[in-house]
Amino acid sequence: MAIVVFEDDEKKWSVIRDCLREKGVRDSGIKRIDNIAQFVEIARKPIDLCIIDIRMPGVSGGETRDAGVELLKMLDYSGLQRVPLLAITAYPEEARRSQSAFASRGCIIYDYSDRKTWSQALDIFLAQSKEKGRYQFLLFTALGKERDAYLKVPGFSEESVQREGLDLWETEIDGQAGAIILLPRMGIINAAVTTARALELYSPAVVAMSGVCAGIQENAELGQLLVADVVWEYQSGKWIKDAFEAEPYQISIDQRTRLTLSKLLETTGLISQFEASFSGTVRPSKLSKPKLAPFTSGSAVIASEKRLSAVKSQHRKVAGIDMEVYGFHRAIEICARSIHAFSAKVVVDKANEAKGDELHEYGCFVSAAFTLHAVRMLLSETKE
After folding, report:
1. Distances 354 to 206, 241, 302 between C-alpha atoms, Å
2. Coil, strand, or helix at residue 299?
3. What are 301-341's pLDDT values in tens digits?
4. Sequence-ordered list of residues with C-beta below 8 angstroms from that of 211, at least 6 positions apart, any chain
């Protein structure tokens, strides 16, 4: 749960923070903003609840002023219109002047001196926000063996639960709660629908998809870890008699996420580090450097050179091909929230007649280990 408290007064801040602690909110989930200029620290970040003081200084150490309506506008301009608001003020006269503006936003202004009332209101807001902020990160897999691979990563633990019709393994990374969701079936539609539903239910800060994929001969090696840079659906287009005219719509990952992942992929010995914990018997014949790469998805498994050639014609550097990545990223693109999101899959075949599953255990494990490592880094950025 992520709660932002707009409060410049030290005494009021201490009282509100202690009240939140008493109600079970962790300190890591409480962010204080003590002046308007500090708003940039939360702009476009996932927030579950805002507690607002209608009187604050513009800058640190400045004179306090009536800033309630200004804060409402800043929240709206930052794409945070749907964040629940609770206003607590020690200035009843100014509260009356701002009442209509706050009421139009669905926010009630409470008198700070009446702690019993605003504390009870907080109970309701926290109950509503608890489910929304239950998980800081969500991971998705299409196959049971892709999720089972996490059990073999050192230090990983899970609790299997079912919530809102989703198959979840609850887990933690550095004390932050998350879950691994198994799709009900493979495919773009299942990936898109399940991802969209989970995002709406839980509002995570980081989401990722792990697993295995096929690789394009010239641009990927067996056993190579591919992180999707740009993705599209290869079957989007129009059939004219026996000819197919492709019309792919591409999605790129967020630039902030891309930069963090590209630096991580530069780490010397990164894959060797993960391989050291792999207990399986089959490994690729050589280690290949992991990379960011173009990725495409479709609704059917490809095991044909002829069909693959049509896919390759859509992008000369396409490296990975699977059945879910595009649906996953499309759901994120339209969720209207700024979150870290990526897909990381290991090449286990070349989508031709020689398609096999010898490298599946290896691919699932390396992908899972990398995903946990990358999510840990991205979570640390959301705290900053």
Report:
1. 36, 30, 11
2. coil
3. 655 566 666 666 667 788 999 999 999 999 999 986 789 99
4. 141, 142, 143, 146, 322, 324, 345, 346, 363, 364, 367
